[in-house]
Amino acid sequence: MRVLFVSTPGIGHVFPLVPLAWALRVAGHEVLVATTGSALAVADAGLPVANLADGFDFRAVREQARRDHPELIERLRNTQMTDLSQALFIFSRISKMMADGVVKIADDFRPDLVVHSPMNGAALLVAGRLGVPAVEHGFGFARTAHLHDAMYDSLVEEFAAHGAAGLPEQRISLDVAPPSMLTEPSTGWPTQYVPYNGGGVLADWLRERPARPRIAVTLGTVAVETNGLGPVERIVTLAPKIDAEFVLALGNADLSGLGELPPNVRAVGWAPLGALLETCSGVVHHGGAGTTLTALAAEVPQVVLPSGADRFINAGAVRDRGAGLVATAEDLDVPLLETLLRDDGLRAAGAEVRAEIAAMPSPSSVVPRLAAALG
Q1: Is 254 within the bounds of a domain?
Q2: Residue pLDDT, tens place only, 15-26
């Protein structure tokens, strides 16, 4: 098979596709990833990548959307979303910007199958145009396959301009959410979540078990830009009162405003999250899908501080399963962080979910099923 992966231009959208892409390559299939912007970092995973839009700037898209629809953007930031249909207009706008580039890449590559990130109208367009199946690869707890018709309606002119009569006839969804954490049965193919958070040379301290409990603190790749470092400032203030090591894994965020860090706080910039969490007794994070599932796969109790997008959905799933706590930055205090470290119930639920994830069909076992779907 020739398989074209089409990702929305964000690291959190493209990284979950890597394990399946490699499973296909190992099985002898040809793979190409089409994306742009920060998602081009997927090339570091050793995959062939085509840039579908030179100069794409996700931040500029968000700023333009804020100017065009200030009331909608404000609602997205301050509403506890339970359905990503409220964010459709942003993904529709991005899909329109991607469409020409994806069509050109697909015409050159001629895929037999298109695998795509959720809410990716450009991928649906190109699969419909070529008459090949589209496979939506989920990355969290939000349900999005039901939005395909609405995405088509928002891109009907682009579909017509590129000669696509409609959505692809065969649409498959891969669901990485552990079934016990869903509020209703999944309609997708269960697929094991295998963390990919980027590679890196592990520092000596990260290869050793810590002498005392370690808590990771991360805000992902988007939340820190839009919401600042408020939760981190509070944690740094609390850290000297807690017998634990805190690791601030905040990427390229400017931490100069935090001042001199306490002795039990370590700032590391970028670190492979999966490797970091395997050494941790707890994690405080923003509720991004990749961070949430990586923590679940590592059996690490969580304090989730959701802040828009799908993060409230992910946080609710963690809370309802008993694998973590949901809070605001203002809620952060010593008792909350001590609960994160000491609560046996959180650990028991985490162990159950980790076992559940491990028992789900691996990406490698999904590959022959995808091949069979082509007939």
Answers
A1: yes
A2: 999 999 999 999
